[in-house]
Amino acid sequence: MCMEGVPPQGMSTGGVPLCRTADVPPNGMRACAQAGKEYLVTQQDGVFHVFQHKCPHRGGPLSKGRLQDGVVTCPWHSSKFDVRTGKLVTGPKVGPEVPFVRKFIALFVRNLREYPSVVNDGMLYLQNP
Ligand code: FES
């Protein structure tokens, strides 16, 4: 997580450029690529986050999903992730529509991996791509 002009504690500015902050809409998201790898970049309440782009369930492209109220919904099976923390909110809608079955399936879906990033002079940089 990083905020404009405020590098996270212990981090220097710099790193590998990922995208311009102006290209990520407020409370929105987009896919950004670096060295052939795609990342999901979100801006929620003025704070930028960089996550894995592929859903940890079956690899759905998260930037093609929907982002509402700080929660991104995977376009393939509707898993939901909090874009402030990367934590799984609800699991995929697969299998029988039985609550305990859905909870069991969700046990096998990880949280989103977040990558350390920093904003400097209108650019978002990956610290450890
Ligand atoms: S691939 Fe994202 S919920 Fe299945």
Compute the average pLDDT. 89
The domain tally reads 1
- The end-to-end distance, rounded to whole angstroms, is 14 Å
Spatial extent as radius of gyration: 15 Å
The portion of residues assigned to helices is under 10%
Query: According to CATH, what is the topology?
Result: Rieske Iron-sulfur Protein
Shape label: elongated
CATH superfamily: Rieske [2Fe-2S] iron-sulphur domain
CATH class: Mainly Beta
Sheet with the most strands? 5 strands, antiparallel
Structural class: mainly beta
Order of helices and strands: EEEEEEEEEHEEE
Features:
single chain; 129 residues; mainly beta; Rieske Iron-sulfur Protein; five-stranded antiparallel sheet; four-stranded antiparallel sheet; binds FE2/S2 (inorganic) cluster
Structural overview:
The chain has about 130 residues and is mainly beta. The chain has one domain (about 1-125): Rieske Iron-sulfur Protein (3-layer Sandwich), CATH 2.102.10. Helix content is about 5%, strand content about 40%. The strands form three sheets. Strands 1, 3, 4, 5 and 10 form a five-stranded antiparallel β-sheet that branches. Strand 6 (about 65-70) and strand 7 form a beta hairpin. It is elongated, with a radius of gyration of 15 Å. About 30% of the residues are buried. Mean pLDDT is about 90; it is low at about 5-10. FE2/S2 (inorganic) cluster (FES) binds near residues 58, 59, 60, 76 and 79. FE2/S2 (inorganic) cluster (FES) binds next to loops.
